[in-house]
Every structure is written in structure tokens, then in C-alpha cells.
Amino acid sequence: MFALFIFIAANPHAVAVELDLVKTSVPVVLDSRLTIQTSTGKGDVPVHISRDWTIRQVDVTRAIILVHGWPRRDLDADEYVSKHAGKAALDTIFITPQFLIQADVTGHQLPAATLRWDLDGWKQGYDAQAPAPVSSFDVIDSIIQRLTDRRKFPNLKIIVLAGHSAGGQFVQRYAVVGHGADALSAADIHVRYVVANPATYLYFTDKRMQSDGSFAVVDAKNCPGFSNWNMGWLGKLPAYVAQPVSVDKLEKAYLARDVVYLLGTADNDPIADALGMSCPYKIQGATRYDRGLAYAKYIDFSAQGHSNHRLMKVPNVGHHAYAMYSSTCGLAALFDRPGCRLKKWRCTR
């Protein structure tokens, strides 16, 4: 660990730049507002919707919800992806929510009703700091509720919830504890979760992959916090998570869901994360790419090969949301486009 701290100290610039960007007000706040109403209160979240979802959309068969990264700035991925998808995007509605922090609200002089989270709270499913304790996961529930309205979307067949980087963390955790799957099942709408290049993953046990490829229980004394939420089930869980928590049931349901892990093979910088140098991160793997491979093996190990999860590798692409989504495998994950082999744990560009 001492050597690790020396390594961090020798490379402070990249860490400082990312943190500074995350803490500063975003240059753009999305154009529309979605009011989120829960039993604990309500508030507004900025959102961009590619079509008017207040009127009947008979031709829409696919909805794609795109969750931004930690700096809250990659907001036009829908336009970029749509151009690359071509005809496959013609029957698609894109929804992009934006999870703001106080600096954004202050910087843009936004109304008091605007929901705002702390720096890490939104990607972990915690409640907003103001104006009401609304979970960031409640936002996805509200979007799904809109999309399951058969009066507006009579022919909707699939919803894809996708996120890159911190958005990937968000999507993976929502795939485990989110409430939207039940509503979608009742409406006979399939849901897919696309988890692209996240920094960490939520594990169901204290086992992590060892250097020899085996899995063993980690001693918390050697890596404090490695099993706290949102990497494990200790510590403070979001109020959103249904109580009492049955990790076994959540794991069983998660393994049955359609989950795609979309990994860029060049996302392999060991000092790329502002927060990724700590032991709880590194114990999952040295880089984002390594952590994704390790988690895929963990899922295969846990499910004994019986899950609906797939690993798709995008060669020579690093930590770039637009390049990931517009790759052959990215378009396959989002649109079921051909060209990417959809075998479990194997996919080439």
C-alpha cells in the first residue's frame, strides 16, 4: 500500500483535473424538465427527449435511456449514436436525464424545485440533497413509468438503459436494485442494461478474483471499505433499496436479467480514475478493463455459466462513451445490429 501512495503522489495532475471538472458547474443544462413525484416529496430533473412523449408515438418500438458520466457533460450521445445507427434508430426514442449538483444549480440560477445530489450520491442511488429526498434511481423509475403507458407507446418492445463510466456504475447498480423491471414485465416490454467501462462493480459476496484467476474471500482488515455500498452490501445503503435486503434474491434476479458489459480494451490506464487508486477499487482489478474482465468471470463463477449476461469487447477503444456506443458491438448492444457475435463472454468488433 505504501508503494501505491507513492505512485499516486507522483501522478497528482490527472486526479486533480478530473476532480476539479466534476466539482465545477456544467456548461449546459438540458432543455426540458421531468417532475419526479415520490412518497417523500418531489422535484424536477433536467432531461432531453428526442420525441414529444406527451403525444401518441405509434412507430416507436425501442427506447434508449442514456446516463452520463461523473462530470455530467456527455449529454448528446443520443445524436451521435443515432447518426451511426442509421435506419435502426428511426423507431427509437432517446431519453437523457441529467443529475445535477449544487454547483450546477447555483451556477445557472436554477429554480429551487431542481433536484441536486452530492458529487457521488447520484451514481450510487442516494437521495437528492434538495428539494426533497428523491433517489436518483427514482428518476429512472419515472421515465420507465412514462414509457410503459400503452396509450402513448402502443408498440414499444424494448427499453435499453445504458451508461458509460459513472453512468455505467449507475446502470449496473440499478439493474440489481431498481424497481422498474416489474412494471416492464407487466407491460410485456423487455429491458436490457448496457454497462460500459464503469470504474467498479457491485459484488454479492466478499470474494474477489486472485492473481491466479481463482476467487477468495477478502479480509476487510487488509482492505477497509471494499464491501461497502456501492461495491458491496455493508455501510449505508440508499433508502431506495427495499428492506429487508435479501442479497441472494437480488443476485438471482440480476443473473436472470439481460445485462451487457461493454468494455473498451484500451481503457487500461491504471491512474485514470480520480478515486480509483484506493484499495476497494484496486482489489477489483488494476484498471477499468481488468475490473470488467474480473467481474465477468465472477458472474460466470457465481452463475455456474447460467446467466443472461454478455461480455462485449471493443478493440482499441479507451474511455470514450461515443466511440464505445458507436462501435459494432456498441450498436449491437443498443440496437441489436448485426456484426457483433452475441455469445456469452465473447464478442469481437
What does this structure look like?
The longest helix is centred in the C-terminal third of the chain and has 16 residues, at 288-303. Mean pLDDT is 92; it is low at 1-12 and 345-349. It is globular, with a radius of gyration of 19 Å. It is α/β, with parallel strands linked by helices and 349 residues long. 42% of the residues are buried. Helix 3 links the parallel strand 3 (62-67) and strand 4 (92-97). The chain has 12 helices and 10 strands.
How does the helix and strand content classify structurally?
alpha/beta
- Principal-axes shape call: globular
Tally of individual helices: 12
Separation, N- and C-terminal Cα atoms: 37 Å
Could you list the spans in which at least 5 consecutive residues all have pLDDT below 50? 1-12, 345-349
Helix and strand element order: HHEEEHEHHEHHEEEHEHHEHH
Average pLDDT number:
92
Amount of helix: 25-40%
Radius of gyration: 19 Å
Please count the beta strands (DSSP E, at least 2 residues each): 10
For the largest beta-sheet, the strand count, sense and barrel status come to: 8 strands, mixed
Strand content: 15-25%
- Output the strand order for the largest sheet: 1-2-4-3-5-6-9-10
